[in-house]
Design a protein that fits this description.
Helices cover 48% and strands 7% of the residues. It is mainly alpha-helical and 414 residues long. A two-stranded antiparallel ribbon has the order 1-4. It has a two-stranded antiparallel ribbon with strand order 2-3. It has a two-stranded antiparallel sheet with strand order 5-6. The protein folds into three domains: 156 residues, no CATH class; 155 residues, no CATH class; 85 residues, Ribonuclease H-like superfamily/Ribonuclease H (Nucleotidyltransferase, domain 5). The structure holds zinc ion (ZN). Zinc ion binds next to loops. It comes from Lithocarpus litseifolius.
Amino acid sequence: MLAKQYWRITQNSNSLLARTFKAKYFPRGSVQECKTKPHHSWIWKNIIKSDNPKLREGIWWVGRGFDIPLNHQHWFAQQHIQLNHPNLVTGTVGDLIDHSSHSWKCDLVRSLYTLAQASKILQISLSRTDAVQDKLCWKYSNEGHYEVKSAYQILVKDNSVTQGPTLQQKGAWNQIWSVKVPLKLNIFVWKLMRDRLQTMLSLFNRGISSLNLCPLCNEESESTTHLFLLCPFTRACWHGSGLAIHSYDFNSITVQQWLTSLLLKHKKKEVHSMEYLQAVFTYLWSIWTYRNRVVHEGIVPNPMEVILTAKLYLAGARCNRTKRYSFAYEAINMQGVSVFFGVACSIARSKGGAMFEAMVEATIRAKQHGFQYVLFLGDDRRVVQAFRKKRSTDWLDKTRLADLNALAQSGFFL
Ligand SMILES: [Zn+2]
């Protein structure tokens, strides 16, 4: 889009935008001749910088020719053009045109330019009515105006930009949000996948920072791939994480490619996969926050601190995630008199599990009180079914069911 501004300034030199920039950055000469200087603004540097030279490649639409300097960069480059040639009065293309017949001065053109260049110049048709004004146009459009759509096609063809995300990338991006971590971690990983983190290299490329060195090792430039995979500091963190992430897996891939394959490989429905991704996300986040502390607080990098922070964070997250259940029961005899009761915190991971635990404890106490028959009154249908079928999905619950079974077989009637 900034190339569009370049052409606006080039073609509408009287516009406010063009006059403002001219006064500030190129008071003498043209925008094409302007060279960037360190004090120039980021916007201006990007307007005149050639990310792909084709976006700023111009072609002159020739009118009378007096507005086209012969040494203009978009006119036929001829290094040794003899501007002191006796037939060149104004030093512009106008000198090459016979204005009475509206034709090229063939002999003069041939004497100044190479054969190929002269041939191209002589093929340029000239206006016979002076209806055309000299105008610098964008070479890659029929109309002469810069078109974002055509520019995009050129960039795609020249591989300067990628063709949008692939289906695989989209799948991985969606997967990011299904990993159960605090939302700020999902957002952080999403930014990393889109390569939007403000590393030293990205700040340097945008002209905001004069340094691009990694703050953790001070050896290489800090790209996201270096920071999260290749930096010796990070390698030490991954090594200590116990996540079986080996640095030899990182040969010639970017951190984005690595994360994409991880996200696609680990299915969100599998508990272990989810825990693995949670751990990877937590480590990435810990590395990033620690790196920020190194940059802003000047602390000395120590991988152990990242490992401990991540482990603490993960341990805390696991405790928080588990819902705690507690149970209470009351035993009443046939006469309706309360015999005993109990309250306790359960280690079960589900409500049903907590009920089984209560049943086991109540039965054991009933046995101690000398009872032989116990009738349970409960309101959870799933628990009743699981009890009847002696089947449960959770291992802890299976243990309780086995306990109840054993009690029943030892002559206790439930
Ligand atoms: Zn480094």
